[in-house]
Queue: 4 jobs
Job 1
Amino acid sequence: MVKQARAELTRQQIVAGAAAQFEKTGYGSTSMSDIVAGAGTTKGALYFHFASKDELAQYVIAEQHRMSIESVQAISATSSSPLEQLVMLTHEMARQIVEEPIVRAGIRLTLELSTFEGPVEPYADWIAASTDLVQRAKDAGQVKGSVDIGALGRFIPAAFTGVQLVSNVIARRADLTERVDEMWKLILPGIVSDALSGDVDTLVNSRWVPVAA
């Protein structure tokens, strides 16, 4: 049992070190030696847990994706309206990007590896979740009947991706919350139903607060 716990701790240490290195230098410029140095472990320990750099990168992406899916599920389980949940989801993703190194690494890896037929699941699932929330908002009368559900479901993840990338370049994401608010101030007036036209500011300020375990 102690041996298993030690092995799991080493695995977590390797993943954390790899995430930090992938975030800093990207997939192509990161070597297994860099990861060993960053994780403070040995090559033997690294190769015991991960057979290759690609396997390790895929694991980091999967962990980032798992965190995102858990957020979608938790926010969808709240009593907030579909549009509120949609805004909450983007702000929770922004928080994770700012606070979680593995999320930043996973996003960078997904963007880099997608150039070479890399993983599409993270974005495909995000689009599916957004589309579902938009459909629910339309069914609830929150969204105009003329809104193209599929187009909006695809646009929101794309818009957020652009916003967070530019925020990273210009301000190292220090202004990401404000930029996401701006994104919604531009999107919401064009999609909300007449009944909610006066509630745009309230919707923009929607935030999810996790329930303490």
Job 2
Amino acid sequence: MPTTQDNNQADNPVSIAKDNDALLRLCAARLDTLKNDRIVLYAGANLPSEAAIAAYSPALSAYPAMGPRFAKEQPDTDLVSKLEIAVENEVNALFGSQWAETRLANCTTANLAVFHAFSQPGDLLLAPTAAHGGHLSQRRGGTPELAGLKVMDLPYDARHDRLDAAAAAEMILTVKPRLVMLGRSVMIKADDLAPVVASAHQIGAKVIFDASHVLGLIAGGMFPNPLALGVDIMTSSTYKTFPGRPHSIIAGRHADDRRLLSRLIESRMIANCDAGCLPSLLVTLLETRRHGAGYARQICRNTAAMAEALRAQDVSVIAAQAHETATHQLLIPMDSSMPAKATITALERHGILVGTCADPRALNEFALRVGTQFMTRQGKNEADFAAIAQSLAQRLEKTAAGRMRYRG
């Protein structure tokens, strides 16, 4: 009977120790590897500043800090309560929210909490589909079903690469959902939210916007603020265009919503199991208040420059038009003769780290989803991204159908 590697190692403790030591050395070197030996174009990646990394406090994570501020279940947690207030104040200052909740570890958990707080099992949620960039935590077949929600797909305008706002507004009035989830993992430009928000509020539905990919662009004034446009609740992760450690932010406009959400989190979820993240999040929020506008502006400039440079290299690109404001993302439609996973693995061998997504313009096809936020964070400008575009273009070729494939 063949033995697995694990079985072989179980008989050789010395080999296990050496392998573990090697793994730890690779982990220690990973930061330098990403900064110096990789072209990171993955749209869901970023690095916090050295100050934010240093601010992480293991002592605050020695045990949980569950419950309301200054009335937590665990002893000697007033410092955590003070941090919660400071972080909330900074979130409110950045995004114009009336309240903020930052005790949950990630946006998937945050979305689940919002679903449970503002709906009942069997209620209807309208959300983006996977084919148009809907994230697992938003869409049919994903996290909403853990809350017992029925899910219908929001309409999408593939011609203009955005939510079909008029059709969505009409759909809301017809099917009368309890919740409407906006925002996607694939966003090359902003959606028109006004008609959707108006219809939802007309029938008493709650509107949620998952800003995970564009939070830093919102903070920097380069993407419309959903809360300012009438969205009730904004959820987000904190490590894409917002360059922090992985965590979550929930922010809203109405005090009653905050009370409902806090009651659920404090009674049914383990919040602040890692309160040591809060000082780091506070540092990133403060940095964003000071420098976020310049960073967001450069991200959008770099995306536009890269799209232009790729087109000049005869690479097919789906991106914001010249008269539109870009985000951190552009798409490269790929030929399916090489599967998506094989394509990104092949590019990885050349030091290019990029992800894939469903091509929102073509059913059952995929695209490379290219993000500029990581390399912008490393100080790259438009000229640098023109060179990066050339490096990527050298690894691709166009098919007769106009889609790209890995050149080899």
Job 3
Amino acid sequence: MSHITRAELSRDTGARKALTALLRDQGGTDGGHRLVWTLFADDPKASRDFVFREAEPGRYLIVSARPPGDGQGLWRLETKPYAPAFREGQRFGFTLRANPATAVKQAGETRGKRVDAIMHAKTRSATPLTVEDRERVALDWLLDRQQGFGVLFERALCSAGGYRQVRVPRGGKAITFSVIDYEGVFTVRDPGLLGQALVRGIGKAKAYGCGLMLLRRLAE
């Protein structure tokens, strides 16, 4: 059984000071990533088993295999069981914040190297990419994966905007990845695959707030 949680940082001054100290003890800060990890600190050896999105500063939506726990008293949590059920033919509106990365093989390589899909398109283009070009590349990336998500996206009703590069300190260095905000409409084709995608998340950089798809039911 998975869980969905609305998590809001406590406004209590003492709690916020304790949170600042906790993040410092963990070796630095990188936004929501470290904040949300504090809710799953009961097992330091456990792999990440949640996806999340920052709704606004200090407020998060989280889908997780384990229920979150607030041992420090830093959060206000509303957690419910999460077991969405779908049937083929249903239509949904969606929003998704995703990292559009793709694997590109070079000559002689057996495994592809993960690259930013939009930057890759830019290097292959003879002219600078326009905003429309970036949206087309980003939508191509999403629609190319629709079969694995168990859906059929309605391209004419989908958009991809807000392209930006995110830089996160890590181990004395930094990792950089791109983020796109998608929204649109799809029809369910495989309920089981869709359910898995919602729990596991979509794309890469899920530890940093990407990959959680939110839905709203539409008339068929």
Job 4
Amino acid sequence: NLPSWVSSPQMIIEPTSPKLLPDPLKEPYYQPPYTLVIELTDVLLHPEWSLVTGWRFKKRPGIDSLFQQLAPHYEIVIFTSETGMTAFPLIDSVDPHGFVSYRLFRDATRYLDGHHVKDISCLNRDPAKVVVVDCKKEAFHLQPFNGLALKKWDGSSDDRPLFDLAAFLKTIAMSGVEDVRTVLENYSLEADPLEAFKRRQTQLEQEEQQRLADLSKNKKQQQLFLGSLASRLWPRSKQQ
């Protein structure tokens, strides 16, 4: 007979547990209202290989800022399609201050149609509060409106998307969004959702500036009108 791990395909294609994370923290401990599930490879790190150094992993600009800004609002979970043996020391290197709450690896994914899929129904978290960030849409295709697909990082040093991602996710948190899927669905068809967010943000800022300018203009017109009205109500004496 074949060993049990060979004869049972469920061991390979199903997550190791139907409940990948422990229950949310209860008072007096602090549980952030949202959960960020983020990939490691090509999102936070870029693998590079050379004859001289072999494999090396480059840290993406903005990681420290991302974690620091989001930690008060998001429970940060690195969920990678890499194996634990490969990823564990890499996560240590990108998170020296311990902002990452949990680490999930390839054995926690669901293997479907040749892809390692992150099934958030196994996370033990409210799906209305979970954001999945990956460079592959296939990674979250079971719950497409929980996901945000970034462009794969090519290792360039002048890269900015993690700074934009921090602004985007912080805006969601500060706005108190009840269901993140209502926001992420609006960006699901965008080739570059973060660029789309920045365009909309710029447009809203311009509209707000125009609104304030119109208010200021109307206020000045109102003051001129009131001044004219007062001069008619209390005309100057003939001696003046």
